Amino acid sequence: MKTARRLCQLTDVPDGHSKGFNIEGQAIFVVHQRGRVFAYRNVCPHLNVPMEWQPDEFLDSDKRMIQCAVHGALFLIESGYCVSGPCTGQSLTTVLCEVRGGDIWITCDSD
Ligand code: FES
Description:
This protein is mostly beta strands. It has no helices and nine strands.
């Protein structure tokens, strides 16, 4: 069964920033890019490990791509597709996400 969950306010993730969450044992992160929000599981497809280099820091230095801190793989923010690094051609796992009433909501599996 799918359940919608409110994560936080959009203003909690400023444009050009990212934020990590733990939802019932599942690590995810969101990226805010020019009013659009994207969410992914926090698991690098290279070695199935968490990706941030510091808490809530999932982006490269110029905030244009998602970057895995372990070996530097780069992923497109809008699709999670890896364009550089040891997992080129693979993708992050997308989490359904939308902005509603100024809040960020995800849709996740629940029992
Ligand atoms: S674990 Fe992410 S690039 Fe190697």
